[in-house]
Amino acid sequence: MSSSQFCFKKFSVRQDNCAMKINTDSVLLGSWATLRAHTRVLDIGTGTGILALMAAQRCAEHVDAVEINAEAAQQALENTQNSPWHDIISIHHCDIKNYSPTNTYHHILANPPYYDNTLLPPDKARRQARNTQSLALELLAHCAASMLAEDGTFSMIYPSDTEQKLETVFAGEGLYPSRKTLVHTREGKPPRRILIEFTKEVRNTTTTHLTLADLQGTPTEEYTTLTQDFYL
Hints:
By secondary structure, this protein is α/β, with parallel strands linked by helices. The chain has a single domain, classed as Rossmann fold. It has seven helices and ten strands. The strands form two sheets. The protein has an eight-stranded mixed sheet with strand order 5-4-3-6-7-9-8-10. β1 (5-7) and β2 form a beta hairpin.
C-alpha cells in the first residue's frame, strides 16, 4: 500500500494533500460512535474525509463534512466521490464558525486538534490540523450545541487527561456526557485518549475501558472486534 493511500475494506483514502494523515484516533471514533440508522451526520474538520466515509458506511442518510483547509477539502471531495457513498456525502470548504446548515443533526463527529498554542508547527496546514488555535474547545462546544438536534449525540476523541476540562466546557453550552471510553494503547499502561459522547439531556454516564494491544503488542480481541468492519 502506498503511504499516500490507505485502504479499508470498502473504500480507499488518499492523504497526500492532507496535513493530518489517517490515524488510530479517527478509526476508533468512527467505529465507536453511536450512530442511529437513517440519520443526518455532521463531521467537523473532516480532513481526508475518513469519518464521513465511516459514518456513511455504517448507516447515515446524509453526511455533511466541513473542512477549513482548501487542499484537504479537495482531497476529501475526491475520496468521497470515489466511494460507494458519493451521493450522500457533501464536502463544505469553510470554517465551522461560518457554516450555516439549514437543519440540525442527529449526530456530530469530531477528531479535533488538541495541541496547545505553545507548539505551533511552521506549516499553516499542520497548524490548522493539529493545533487548538484553529478550533478551540469553546468554539467546538458552541458549534456542536447549536447544530445538534434536541435528541442528538456529539462524539469526539481527545487526550484523556483533559476529561474534566471537556466536561466543564461542554456543560457551559448545555451538553453533558452520556458515554465514555478510556483508551489504553497497551495493556498495563495509563489511558492516552478518551472517547466521549455528549447529549443535551443529563443522563447517567457509562464509562468503559478499551485496550488496543497486549504486552507483546498484539492487537486485542476487543480492538479487533470494534474495527473489524473497516480494517483489512
